Amino acid sequence: MALTAWVLYDFTAEPGNNELTVREGETLTVLDRNVGGGWVEAQNSRRQTGLVPEDYLQVGHFGSSEGGGSHVSNTTEQWDSRGHTSTRQATVEDDDGEWDDWDDQSVSSYRGSCHVDEDGGPSGRSAYGSSVKIPRNKFPFSKGPNPEVFLLAKPPANSRDRLPVYIGEVGPVWLYPTSPLDCVIADPRKESKLYGLKSFIEYQITPSTTNRPVNHRYKHFDWLYERLLEKFGSALPIPSLPDKQVTGRFEEDFIRMRMERLQAWMSRMCRHPVVSQSDVFQLFLTYRDEKEWKMGKRTAEKDETVGPMIFSMIEPEAAELDATHVEHRCEQYSQFTKLMDDGVRELLNVGHTHWKRCTGPLPKEYERIGRAFRNLSTVFNTSKYPGEETLTDALTATGTTYEEIAQIMKQQPNNDLHFLLETNSEYKSLLGCFPDIISVHKAAVEKVKEADRLVSAGKIDHSDRKSMNHRISSMSYSLQAEMNHFHSNRIYDYNRVMQLYLERQVEFYQQIADKLRTALSQFTTL
Amino acid sequence: MALTAWVLYDFTAEPGNNELTVREGETLTVLDRNVGGGWVEAQNSRRQTGLVPEDYLQVGHFGSSEGGGSHVSNTTEQWDSRGHTSTRQATVEDDDGEWDDWDDQSVSSYRGSCHVDEDGGPSGRSAYGSSVKIPRNKFPFSKGPNPEVFLLAKPPANSRDRLPVYIGEVGPVWLYPTSPLDCVIADPRKESKLYGLKSFIEYQITPSTTNRPVNHRYKHFDWLYERLLEKFGSALPIPSLPDKQVTGRFEEDFIRMRMERLQAWMSRMCRHPVVSQSDVFQLFLTYRDEKEWKMGKRTAEKDETVGPMIFSMIEPEAAELDATHVEHRCEQYSQFTKLMDDGVRELLNVGHTHWKRCTGPLPKEYERIGRAFRNLSTVFNTSKYPGEETLTDALTATGTTYEEIAQIMKQQPNNDLHFLLETNSEYKSLLGCFPDIISVHKAAVEKVKEADRLVSAGKIDHSDRKSMNHRISSMSYSLQAEMNHFHSNRIYDYNRVMQLYLERQVEFYQQIADKLRTALSQFTTL
Questions:
Q1: Where are the domains of chain A?
Q2: SUPFAM superfamilies per the record (chains A, B) (predicted)?
Q3: Contact between chains at B362 and A365 (C-beta distance less than 8 A)
Q4: How far does the CA of residue A314 sit from the closest CA of chain B (Å)?
Q5: Whole-prediction pTM
Q6: Class of domain B74-144+177-307
Q7: What ipTM did this prediction achieve?
């Protein structure tokens, strides 16, 4: 006898993908629970059948208090190597609507990633703004173990991972590679698995170093993101990936936009001297076969130098800083990133409003103006008055010109505002990472401040106290190097995007002026 | 003991003009009923005193059925010289808030003009559109006496008033004067009367012929309009004057706008070969003293060649046309003016919408964009990062540029759309006159069609029938001459206004492009 299932969340089927649209609260008959890939084949009350994500369903146990069925079964409590308790809830969205992968290890890891949308659903979100994920407080230092666990921890033996900080012209800086890394994402292809039942998009990524393309699905990018966040998130801003989306994910516009955003994300990661040289990032870009990829993934997932432990890798070439200095710097960066976040949000807000106006009411109005001129011209033409056509020809041309302007207007935000908003969205995402970084810093500063008391209480000894001072100084050098990296990139990015925006705006207004000048020339001088 | 009065309509006092704001249904104490000029001095329940228009009040008789007091006493039934019954209701608005004039005769005549606003009130109307009065069916031929009264009437003896119609290159045309007439309206001055209690605006009008200025108040223009409408309204479109307005009528913008519209109206009348050469129009422009003005007014008001009688003055030089031809022409013009009216309304509609957007939300958005850039620049400036100011200087300049563009945008409709809308409003007003002209025509055509039956019935004889044929032919020549005048003016006006509009639009967009180009040049090339 078939099992029944209760729908926990709305799910909209991707057309032509064997899926079944279901609504929260609906009851289904489970036809096949073992279809694989996190999918269940089910039938609704209207006898329509199709695949539904397992996590969207509660199978068998209706209203029972024993734990919420398969949905809650994906909620796992983990006590990681650093002693952090992190409750991870299974995502209700997935890149390709699948929860499977080449190896099991990555599944559980991937499932662990939580990207609940701010606006509560995959559809109805605007092109920008809400598409940026709110970074979770992944490493809430204050909620985790006492900072002394990190401040006093011995640095891992592997010196290959050491992160030197030099003093450059602008102050503390990371070690920048001699030849900068970049990559090109191209050729998105729809691929199938589960004997054609499920489809996904595969991208080709070609790094500038090897010039040898590797293939990755969105979920692999997401895996990389999770690894980078885990490893560097306490010290470096790791911006979130472009949103997942269940519906419309095979539409051309969506694929193009996602690829553009993945490209921006990858380029930003490539530009980062610490991230780009990390093993996990190199693995992602340069693995040679499935075996190497699998092995590398396992190694990356076992990496213990994650969270605040990353600071133990920092090796500043400069003199030790005291806690007061560290605190002051931290406050300064906190202030800057907060203010910039406000500024970026403001620009995004007005940008979205402007986008809507420029693609909606404004071109409609220009179309109406153009049509009104053309209509009047048509009426005038019926007069049969001698010399009428000198007016009506010009009037029709003017009408057509305004209709053309309407078309240009409608497309314009894609040509200029788009890049301004994309760059600011990236920065919003980057800036959203700073509160976590700052809080790790502040907790460490507080701990170091009470070091004397800890010594008196016999909890730490004098050499521990010295270690703590050394570690907090390293943290500050790390933060300063990162802020200098951030500033230099920011100045470059905003210079570039503002120039592009203004160039395109100039072209736009010049084009309108030229078109209207041509229309004007059609009129006979009085 | 003082009388009491009941307020019939809301009235808003003109500040500094000794008036009292009252609301419908309010009860007032009448302090002085003999203040003159149609005003009553009254006190409200809050013991505030001031002048209120007599017509807004019902004095003494509350709720009595005997006729509504002074308000209804201004409603007069007139049986005019042409046997038309026209019930005229006193206006509740006046140019200067006054109902008086230099001589009594003009008062009753002026009071007889009714301009009830379409939107029901003097305030809250938009700059265009609703400001155009709906022409009343002043000469509803079908409701008046049988068309035969006109068709068979003997032409008045005064041959000086004859209106010849020639056959020109474009068909029937009026006799155009050798030197075209125009006038300049300037120097609006606030004048007082009633010992300074009441104020009004006086304009100086200088005709191109005499170059000697004459002074007129709005109400004199309105008197002229009434005379022209009465005399020529059956044959020529007499566009209505710019709206009367009770509140805000001494504000600079209002005075400027009214003067501009009076100028446009006068120039249009000056351009008309029949109107410009009429006695009443010449009187208005060239009277030498008050005595001549008064005398001329009396003569004009006694003129009997008014309404459809004007057709008896038409003297075509060409062969008589038959009723079928006349009907066909009439149908053709009816169609054209109706279609053009639709076209003009459409353009006015989208123009008003566009005006609102260009002066409201759009510049606000540009201001916000500009401010967002400047704010971001301010934040960036706090970074103290070397070389920051190369970005922030340019970013601030860009912000300021967008704020300047917002200001230009806000003013722009006054520079371009304004003239387009004014011209179209004028044409809307002109086109609104055609249904009456067409209906006079159609009624006459119908009458001529049944001429044979009238002859059989012994109501008219064969010579009468011949007269009717002659008269309807003259009517058609008049209509054709008028339409040719209309077309030639229309082609001129639309050519002129479209060129002006496009010139200003080109300047506008070019200015924006240039400003943005300057902002762009502030950025350092990457």
A1: 3-73
A2: PX domain, SH3-domain
A3: no
A4: 23
A5: 0.75
A6: alpha beta
A7: 0.76
